[in-house]
């Protein structure tokens, strides 16, 4: 089948198997070009198939030789429908890991459910005995609770309407968007989905079953960002969830014996989740432009390599104990340049002040399109198995 991108709003409903494989291979090549690290030997990655979770898994496997179990929620191909990008990424990851003699297995199911937690616990017990590290990189718009009800996360402010510039990426026009405040219920639901409750359930269950190695470490990812995005991010409904995630890291460290939990504050990047947040895509396009000009731009894999090769081993944290991978993004000169561009940007100077091209390139590449060296006119088999599933 010839696979073409079908973009609907901020999502692409098709994915290219060869392109996704090339993307994973490129990330592996980056890691292999760096000095090897002496990281954890056995790792569970929850949310392992795309974005930061995928790059964490790639880095830990190919830099420190970790055996990895991944948990994801992805769609295999069916009939003429391609699989989701995360499915193809995982198929490629396992293929490359196994070729290098690395242990890699994946569970495809709802990480919020008790069943998937039990399944992961059984697999750890059977194959690895214990894990030294648990990476929690879930990003989900909804969560089904134990009683069967489903709650959704919301990307809104928490007090009043917030109006600011945004970009219509399809037409490349600067427009204005007003983000309304979330209700108390919407905030509580967002905290349920994206806060720390589920992370703690995972860690408690693994700890109770004796599946965490002595001195195990667990990490979850967060974002703070500049003032410009505070009303919609840090001070918004998602920010409340991230604050809960941070408090949970402290609770895990205090309450779960032998485990230390960290929050890593990562850089704003194009992923399937960030594309859905109002205002943020314009911020990211300007940020890319500024950081590429300064030579400090990083993608998910560079970020995750810096996390696991430098920040975590050196325990370089801020005063609240968070690892700061957003350090280069938040540099005063970078933020001053972003703000200047933000204030000046119009339809006419968009090309000079923002890297919309770079945004789209990352967007398409997330789904395996526009990868160099891939023949998109060629017929491809879309039904690709993940070796361990
Ligand atoms: P992503 O959408 O690329 O990845 C989400 C992962 O979660 C995928 O592997 C997906 O399969 C998995 N997943 C979703 N729902 C699931 C479920 N119910 N069961 C099992 N797996 C499920 O997202 P991302 O941007 O890499 O985000 C990961 C984390 O990093 C989030 O906590 C996010 O807030 C944080 N973060 C993102 C950015 C950014 O700019 N993208 C910046 C800083 C921090």
From TrEMBL:
Domain Trans-2-enoyl-CoA reductase catalytic: residue ranges: 81-312
Source species, domain of life: Bacteria
UniProt cross-references to Gene3D superfamilies, sorted A to Z: NAD(P)-binding Rossmann-like Domain
PANTHER family, alphabetized: ENOYL-[ACYL-CARRIER-PROTEIN] REDUCTASE [NADH]
Known role: Involved in the fatty acid synthesis (FAS II). Catalyzes the reduction of a carbon-carbon double bond in an enoyl moiety that is covalently linked to a coenzyme A (CoA).
HAMAP family in the record: FabV_reductase
Name of protein: Trans-2-enoyl-CoA reductase [NADH]
Provenance organism: Christensenella minuta
Gene designation: fabV
């Amino acid at each position: 089948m010839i696979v073409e991108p079908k973009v609907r709003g901020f999502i692409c409903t098709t994915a290219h198997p060869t392109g996704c494989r090339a993307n994973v291979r490129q990330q592996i090549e980056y890691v292999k070009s760096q000095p090897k690290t002496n990281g954890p030997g056995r790792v569970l990655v929850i949310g392992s198939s795309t974005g930061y979770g995928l790059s964490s898994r790639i880095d830990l496997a190919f830099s420190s030789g970790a055996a990895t179990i991944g948990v994801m929620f992805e769609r295999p191909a069916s009939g003429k429908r391609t699989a989701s990008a995360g499915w193809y990424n995982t198929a490629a990851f396992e293929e490359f890991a196994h070729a290098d003699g690395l242990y890699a297995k994946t569970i495809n199911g709802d990480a919020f459910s008790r069943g998937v937690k039990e399944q992961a616990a059984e697999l750890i017990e059977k194959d690895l005995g214990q894990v030294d590290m648990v990476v929690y990189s879930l990003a989900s718009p909804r969560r089904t609770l134990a009683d069967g009800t489903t709650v959704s996360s919301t990307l809104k402010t928490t007090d009043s309407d917030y109006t600011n510039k945004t970009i219509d990426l399809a037409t490349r026009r600067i427009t204005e968007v007003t983000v309304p405040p979330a209700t108390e219920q919407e905030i509580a639901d967002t905290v349920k989905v994206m806060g720390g409750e589920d992370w703690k359930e995972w860690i408690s269950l693994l700890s109770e079953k004796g599946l965490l190695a002595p001195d195990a470490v667990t990490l979850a990812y967060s974002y703070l960002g500049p003032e410009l995005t505070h009303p919609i991010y840090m001070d918004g409904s998602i920010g409340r969830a991230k604050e809960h995630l941070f408090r949970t890291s402290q609770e895990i460290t205090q309450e779960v014996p032998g485990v230390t939990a960290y929050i890593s504050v990562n850089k704003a990047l194009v992923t399937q989740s960030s594309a859905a947040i109002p205002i943020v895509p314009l911020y990211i396009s300007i940020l890319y432009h500024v950081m590429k000009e300064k030579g400090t731009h990083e993608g998910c894999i560079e970020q995750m390599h810096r996390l696991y090769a430098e920040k975590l081993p050196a325990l370089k944290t801020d005063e609240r104990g968070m690892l700061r991978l957003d350090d280069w993004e938040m540099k005063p000169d970078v933020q001053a340049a972003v703000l200047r561009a933000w204030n000046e940007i119009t339809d006419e100077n968009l090309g000079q002040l923002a890297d919309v091209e770079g945004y789209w390139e990352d967007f398409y590449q997330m789904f395996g399109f526009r990868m160099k060296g891939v023949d998109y006119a060629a017929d491809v088999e879309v039904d690709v198995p993940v070796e361990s599933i």
